[in-house]
Specification:
- By secondary structure, the protein is an alpha/beta fold.
- It has helices at residues 17-29, 42-45, 48-55, 66-71, 74-80, 91-99, 105-112, 125-129, 131-142, 168-179, 213-224, 252-263, 306-312, 329-339, 381-395; strands at 6-11, 33-38, 83-89, 117-121, 146-147, 151-154, 160-164, 188-193, 198-199, 205-206, 228-233, 245-248, 268-271, 278-280, 300-302, 318-325, 344-349, 361-362, 365-367, 373-375, 379-380.
- The chain folds into 2 domains: 6-179, Rossmann fold (3-Layer(aba) Sandwich); 188-395, Rossmann fold.
- It has an 8-stranded mixed beta sheet, with helices on both faces. The protein has a 5-stranded parallel beta sheet with strand order 2-1-3-4-5, with helices on both faces.
- α1 (17-29) links the parallel β1 (6-11) and β2 (33-38).
- The longest helix has 15 residues, at 381-395.
- The two termini are 18 Å apart.
- The protein binds cytidine-5'-triphosphate (CTP).
Length: 398
């Protein structure tokens, strides 16, 4: 979603500047064309050369620099931007903007832009709590500026509290959401993700290799496109997407209960979770000890098929399933599509390179009840999520 977008990254002087370098790298990696404006104090922390090398564009530092103005003037820069990010935004910058002061290149360009502005404040906790600062932030919010809340934690000045610049990846998520087309507004999308775990005893469990990456990518993209998202997730090790409601579960039965509890409000259900088909018939309360026999038998009992249950009572909802297969991909996926009464199934052969569990990419096919099959190339999971949501948006008449 950031591909080919023009972003101005304003950098003020604060110790968090080192994170802005990583932010720039992520924005460029996502395909954005980034032009950096640094204040004089920012240049005391990191040299413009670092930002210039990573952005591939000259860094702008001075208002009255004839050479810089000749290449691309600050008004042109302001006009050209799809988004303006200031990270870190200092108390000084926020105060100046709130007071309408434009006395350097950054403040002048900020005042001249019509692009959405995302401010990422980072400062000492007492500065952040200062009533004058808070009043200034309030003025800017009211004027339509988007302001990220700082994180809490250990601050470079030695204090602990609110004032840390959020992780660059979080800032990118907010930036992406600001630029996304909001074609899923009004939808409530329930996404399941990750594996489930079925206990055998207090130490062991049955599970699978699902990392949750596909489901989390769908949840993130849907939220950015304006949907309300409820993410029901098994145990995974990835951060919750910004703005998404997370419901954590462990077992298949807990996932089923959570899905049923939120089903009434959902207009779309996407079941990307790898649900365990069986659980231990008996869960031992104590650790099972090794016996003298070489053979050990574990009795399993079938879990309810959550997707089939939802498919049987769709009540106007769009219901999408996933099929991870190792053999007869299309045939097996089609069977699941029809037997579970789905509107679409996303099929992938997990034996293919770059597809399946715990990788960043996937190669999927969309199968529809009318026999249509769309073959997608190997794509980033975030891009697969976008294509899937394009289909859903159409099905929901957007
Ligand atoms: N699914 C579910 N509840 C289950 C098992 C699966 O909701 N108890 C959902 C998954 O979330 C996925 C789809 O059904 O969207 C297909 O899951 P998969 O494990 O591929 O298929 P199964 O129906 O379990 O069939 P099999 O394991 O025999 O391939």
């Amino acid at each position: 979603m950031l591909k080919n977008k023009t972003i101005i990254l304003g950098v003020c002087g604060g110790i968090a500047v080192y994170k802005s370098v990583e932010l720039l790298r992520l924005l460029v990696k996502a395909g954005a064309s980034v032009h950096v404006i640094m204040t004089q104090s920012a240049c005391q922390f990191v040299t413009p050369l670092t930002f210039q090398t990573l952005s591939g564009h000259p860094v702008h530092t001075e208002l009255f620099n004839l050479l810089q103005e000749m290449e691309i003037g600050h008004i042109t820069l302001a006009d050209r931007a799809d988004l303006f990010i200031v990270a870190p935004a200092t108390a000084n910058l926020v105060g100046k903007l709130a007071g309408g002061i434009a006395d350097d290149l950054l403040t002048t360009t900020l005042m001249a832009t019509k692009a959405p502005v995302l401010l990422v404040p980072a400062m000492n906790v007492n500065m952040y709590d200062n009533r004058i600062y808070q009043r200034n932030e309030g003025i800017l919010r009211e004027a339509g500026y988007h302001i990220l809340e700082p994180d809490c934690g250990y601050l470079a000045c030695g204090w602990e509290g609110k004032g840390k610049m959020p992780a660059p990846a979080t800032i990118v998520e907010h930036a992406t959401a600001l630029l996304a087309e909001k074609d899923l507004v009004g939808e409530t999308i329930l996404v399941t993700a990750g594996p489930t775990r079925e206990a055998i005893d207090p130490v062991r469990y049955i599970s699978n290799h699902s990392s949750g990456k596909m489901g989390y990518a769908i949840a993130r993209a849907a939220q950015q496109r304006g949907a309300r998202v409820i993410l029901i997730s098994g145990p995974v090790a990835i951060p919750v997407p910004v703005g998404v409601k997370l419901v954590s579960v462990v077992t298949a039965e807990e996932m089923r209960q959570a899905v049923l509890a939120y089903l009434d409000v959902a207009t779309v259900v996407i079941k990307a979770a790898a649900v365990a088909d069986y659980r231990a018939a008996e869960v031992s309360g104590t650790k099972i000890k090794k016996g003298s026999d070489d053979l050990m038998t574990l009795s399993l009992i079938k879990n309810a098929d959550i997707l089939a249950e939802i498919g049987a009572h769709k009540e106007g909802r769009v219901v999408v399933g996933f099929a991870a297969e190792t053999t007869d991909l299309l045939e097996n996926a089609r069977k699941k599509l029809l037997s579970k009464n789905l509107d679409m199934i996303v099929a992938n052969d997990i034996t293919e390179a770059g597809a399946g569990f715990d990788v960043e990419t996937n190669r999927v096919r969309f199968l529809l009840p009318d026999g249509e099959v769309e073959n997608l190339p190997l794509l980033d999971k975030s891009e697969v999520a976008q294509r899937l949501l394009d289909r859903i948006a159409r099905m929901r008449g957007h």
